[in-house]
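Ticket #4471: structure output looks truncated?

Reporter: J.K.
Steps to reproduce: submitted the chain below (573 residues) through the standard prediction queue, then opened the result file.
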Amino acid sequence: MQEITIPQRKPRTFIGEEFALNSWQDVKPLYENLLNRTLGNAQDLRQWFIDRSELESYLSENMAWRYIKMTCDTASEENQKNYQFFVEQIQPELSVYSDQLNKKVLDSPFLEELTDAGFYITIRGMKKSVEIFREENIPIETQIQTKQTEYQSTTAAMTVNINGEELTLPKAGDLLQSPNREIREEAWTKISERRYQDHEKLDTLFNELRDLRHQLAVNAGFVNFRDYMFAAMGRFDYTPQDCFNFHEAVAETVVPLVDEMAKERRTKLNVEELRPWDLKVDPDGKPALKPFKNGEDLLDKTVECFQRIDPKLADYIRIMRRMGHFDVESRKGKAPGGYNYPLEEIGVPFIFMNATSSLRDVVTMVHEGGHAIHSFEVRNLPINSFRNPTSEVAELASMSMELISMEHWGVFFENEEDLKRAKIEHLEDILEVLPWIATVDKFQHWIYENPTHSIEERQTQWLKTFEQFSDSITDWKGFERFKRYTWQRQLHIYEVPFYYIEYGMAQLGAISVWRNYKQDAQKGLDGYLNALKLGYTTTIGKIYEAANVKFDFSKAYIAELMDFVKDELEKLK
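Returned output as attached by the reporter:
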């Protein structure tokens, strides 16, 4: 392997090199120090921010490893216990002290002297946190986090038996790409039946989460949880109305394209009715693309792909690999999904995913790789709040890398026809995912605007929303019960409510970044990295500007970008 330098974490000058977290009593004196410290001038205040950042970075990374270990093996009681310890014993205390520290700083007469880029954004966030903090919400937040892990353990335990083999749902999902329609139908039906088996349990769990979240919002003086979350997530740069405009624009500009694609698929497959198990197979009847053999091969090829974009980016993946910061293959007992978890102290993140050797896995890897690049690009910013941008920016990093890397997917697909197929599939997926993003986001607005809704009302609303953004060709006849519950597969609804519209906004930005990259690769890449380097030291709009793209989700802009994607698809076909 190429010689690389493993990054070292910064010395712990405030908490001490030997500091270890075993109980809240270990942490409390450090928070008391910050709370009671005299801040006599701007330099004292700046040092206070640095010391607080050091402590919070340690705790963030400590929590990160507990979460990572739990998701890598959800069946381990020890991992669950270690994670719950932090959630139940540490986090509630942190919430109280965090509010007190925010108030202390906001009262400082020297605050206006901190004019470095980033402090304005951090202070703006602190003010909003103080505004919405309520001590009575701490136990509710603990309950919510505990409930959210129930979703993980429930879905991670789901397997199906096909041809005498027990398969995880991601592995069974690969069969939906089989040219044999009977195999696809069997796989789709078994996956759907298995999910449906737990639908009542997941309905009950969601009702509990909805009620807890609504109480949280009411306690903080909000009419509903949606409005609370817009404040809690620091959505300073857009409003719910902007989201509604996005939904409408997607329905008008993207759904007609998806409809055309579905008609073309039905014709190519030569089927009378396009069924839900026909949506992932190659329409020309070719077997599923196999871009890599196993996890190691996926990582080898990802390094080579990034090397072709910029050797520095390949080194980031090499460093993570050397440090053991990957868990990529699907297996029983592993939580679903994929993520890049920033590790605040070392600045080298961890990538988790459930690879089974599909094109989707390549996309997941380069997506999470984009997040990883972001972590490396911001690791030397002095304060942890500067290193943690909003998700609208974080997802710009990941979704842009999906498209930039696509220009170098020859690493995964040596055959030119396979490479074309992969690009077509990915671009069509982008067109299909925008309506899904609008569906999930619009559904969540309704859920929390109507916090006392019944399960039946929720099903009705889901179907209404689902159908607004779906193609009119796919026939669900006989499987309506599954259709009513397709929302339960979206972990964001359970675990990170309202974190979804960002994918849509960032997807638009990513298409623009890709367009720039295709016009001038070096200039496009420089713009991308310039945006990432800013972390969260300025507004979303200015970060997008640094990438030479617009933070815009108007109908006209979406239509312009969809025309570009459509043209690129036509060139490939």
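Triage note (M.O.): checked the attachment and the full token line is present. The chain has a mean pLDDT of 96.
Status: closed, working as intended.
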